[in-house]
Amino acid sequence: MSSLRSLPSVDQLLQNPAVISWINEYGRPLTLDALRQALDKVREGYRTSKDIPSLEKLLEHAHDLLMLWVSPSLQPVINATGVILHTNLGRAPLSLSAFRAIQIISTEYSNLEYDLAAGKRGSRLAHAETLLTRLTHTEAALVVNNNAAAVLLILSALARRRSVIIARSQLVEIGGGFRIPDVMKQSGARLLEVGTTNRVHLSDYQTTIDEGSPALILHTHRSNFRITGFTSEPALSELAGIAMQAGIPLVDDLGSGALLDTGQYGLGHEPTVSESLDAGADLVCFSGDKLLGGPQAGIIIGKAELIARLKKHPLARAVRADKLCLAALSATLLHYLKDEATCEIPIWRMISMSIDVIQQRADHWADSLGFGTVIESESTVGGGSLPGETLPTYVLSLPVRSPNRTMELLRTNQPPVIARLDMDKVIFDPRTVMPEQENDLLAAIRSAFIK
Ligand SMILES: *Cc1c(COP(=O)(O)O)cnc(C)c1O
Predict the structure, then answer these.
(1) Residue 232 has what pLDDT?
(2) Mutation to probe ligand 1, out of 86, 87, 88, 147 (largest number of atoms < 8 A from CB)
(3) Distances from the Cα of 386 to the Cα of 83, 85, 178, 199, 380, angstroms
């Protein structure tokens, strides 16, 4: 039995060649912290076990600590779930052009708020705004931090201390605690609910307008659920009609903000931005990182006079978009303008991926591994769009003895792999796996299934 006296001092450890190399790589303060913590742990353990670990063990522990501290907590993962807009996995991956735009704008100076032609201060909003108005044929646009902020800003600027009409069937919770009634409370707007959970009529809106003199009508897309059966809601264009008569704006929170028609890929129809504008909405807001396929952002488009009021509101500064968002958003919007969205924007590539290509990829995985079967399955769009809608797909299916253990091995792989569990089978959907991730995926599966 050795005593605590045999334990090396921090100064002695600092002479160790391994430790010297750590100092070079991770810096002296962090290395010192790791050594001290490792020594403390040994002293603590000694009280119960009366045992002193070897120098190697001690250094190994210190090194583990260092690795833990310097490895980024936010890291890329392989999404094999087949959920295209996976909210937990960062929603939309960006296009290569959007990535390049972020790279150049973040590492160099830019004309973010400088008007190059006039040689004086400009507006950061000019950049993505011009593209947005051209693309959607609207008068004006405003980009904020995310769509939740867009809704909050609209209600704060246009309806504070006044009331807002919304159908009971649209009082949604999007997830992550975003509830329309709570946002309204935050904005200082008063909620005027109309209709019942399943049915609301145009006359309900009309009566409430006559009695309540509201500031605006809010229409919200039921992003993540469906109501079926005995249901009815007036068309958006009918709401626009009575809003116009009453002289109040109609605001449409579209949620996902599709610019392309999802129907052409065998999915249900997700309301598009142009449909909402055509129906007569005065303001339309949606997310940048859902079906648009860009960075996290909240996009507001519509009447210039209303957008001007939003821009002047103090909250606009608090929720403004940063330059990296504006760079990536502009690059993403350009794909739509150039009519190349389905081949350049990753989520649209995934949505439009042909079933033959998916089957070939799944077959190739099974061949390379030498185990697993390829079966028909379904992918989903996710991210608060197209609830209940699926895309036919082929997946690699692997029966396992302890599914939870296998899922854990995959998750703790480098890079982590997120798969889907279906009873006692682990499922891998090629649709959401980037082609360049395939080798890493196969290596992860091999090592998880050998263990
Ligand atoms: C997703 C969603 C939001 C929130 O958008 P974020 O960009 O995530 O803040 C708001 N409203 C609706 C209808 C949505 O679907």
Answers:
(1) 86
(2) 147
(3) 12, 11, 18, 21, 8
Distance CA 254, CA 279 (A): 13
Residues of the chain whose pLDDT is less than 70?
1-2, 451
- Choose which residue among 145, 223, 386 to substitute to test ligand 1 binding: the one with the highest number of ligand atoms within 8 A of its C-beta: 223
- Token pair belonging to 366: 């099974």
Give the burial string for 405-424 (b: 16+ CB within 10 Å, else e).
ebbebbeebeeebbbbeeee
What pLDDT is stored for residue 451 in this prediction?
65
Find out whether 299 and 288 touch, Cβ atoms under 8 Å.
Answer: yes
Residues in the chain, how many? 451
CA–CA separation, 375 and 397 (whole Å): 7
3 state DSSP class of 76: coil
pTM: 0.93
Name residue, tokens 């996290």. Answer: 296
CB neighbour list of residue 55: distance below 8 Å, 6 or more residues apart: 8
Query: 398-405, long-range: CB within 8 Å, 24+ apart, which pairs?
Result: 398/371, 398/372, 398/425, 398/426, 398/427, 398/428, 398/445, 398/449, 399/424, 399/425, 400/424, 400/425, 400/426, 400/449
Q: Which amino acid is at 195?
A: G
pLDDT at 142: 98
| Tally of CB atoms within 10 A around 185 | 13
